[in-house]
Amino acid sequence: MFASPTETDIAPSGSLLGLLQRGRGDGWLHALAAPRAEAVAALERCVLHDPRQDWQLEHRSLYYARLYAELGADLDAVEAHLTDPEDALRDDEERTGLALSVLGHLTSYGDRRALRLLRRYAVSGANWRWALDELAVRDDDAGLRALGPRILARFPADAAGEAALTRAVRDSFEPRPWHLWAGDPARPGQRARLERALEHGDFDRWQRQLRPTGPQPGWSVASVLEWAREGYEQTPRQWREASAARCLGAVAGPEDRGTLLAAAAEGHPAARAAALRHLAERGDPDVFPLIEAGAVAADEDVATAAVTAFARMRGAAALARARLWAERADDLGACAAVLLAGRGGPRDAPLVLAALYRAVRTHGTDARELRPLVEGVGRLAVPGAVPVLRHVYRETSSSHLRGHTATALAATDGSFPAGFAVECLWDCEEDTREVGARCATTVDSRVVERLRRLATDPAEQAGVQTAVRGRLAGRAGGR
């Protein structure tokens, strides 16, 4: 019925490994019921080979750390991964970031070996900044102070080393260790060096804020469009569509409308993209045929810019045009359906549902347009969406999308409280756990026990605990 998932390293959704890779609550529950060796092997595979589509958006570390603690799994495999010679050859965060985050959560749960591994890796590992950020929010002052001289030894005492140190201090996600080392009275040399780095970092930020990076006020429309063209023709290419459109907003007047319409119809690709975006953002009534023509242009940059311009439109005219375009099978049709999903009314539910089915059939359960369509059928409470929502929930490898799907199911599926909502309590995403806490039926004894554990878990997020305590209080009061 639906398209097969894109070829990836993600295991089938019904397998233990596939469930854990997706971060589903059922994965947690299946792992506890499986033979321990099998469960630990699957868990280690996930932690050492990050399964996430987008590691900056999706969460897995707390989910895996809790399972490590529940299974009583040792950290030998994680240690071997962090100390592998390959670490010195690859400084990309994706290789070790998830493992380090898992160690951070285990440290919060009192695992001393996890703390020692983080300290060791901060001193010797390639992705040491990530380890230091984990320690910054979990280690005590004495432990962090002891690391100071060894971390600073990474930076030679020459001009290049001092510049690198300044960048590291300036760009640090968690500044606590650097300030702690800068204030260490037992190491005056270290203190002086870091005070200079902190001062230079502040100065660098101030300078960057003062540097102009684009066109200046007073430019004409023609100059802005030419600036966009110049960036397009540079090597490497600079796509200035957004910044040029903002500049057009500052310099364009009513007398420039003809010039902008002409540029949007047949100008240079960069100028055409900037003009389309400018006209769309201002709701120009003549922009729709230009967007439609641009969306089927042979130049991919122009086609993408036309669809992006329409996506930024608001108002009744844009909604009316979206209803005409929503059944198209191209990117403009998908964009129109997304606009209806976010801003349309009950009359638009059939178009949004049809677009959701089409996207899943054509592009699978990880398609980029699914999230707003899923949100849309939930917002419009479309009962006919339940089968496809259940399919997306089970199959998608994106835990972020699954969370939005759970919210949509809560609004459309009467069986959700006794079904998927229960496993949501063990999900890797906090928003999904919150949905489970609000919706899962307490007739299931596992639900009550899980709610109580989440209520007392110091690592759990505040929103989840608020929902959990509300359910427990309501149950105690007979509601």
TrEMBL record:
It comes from Streptomyces radicis. This is HEAT repeat domain-containing protein.
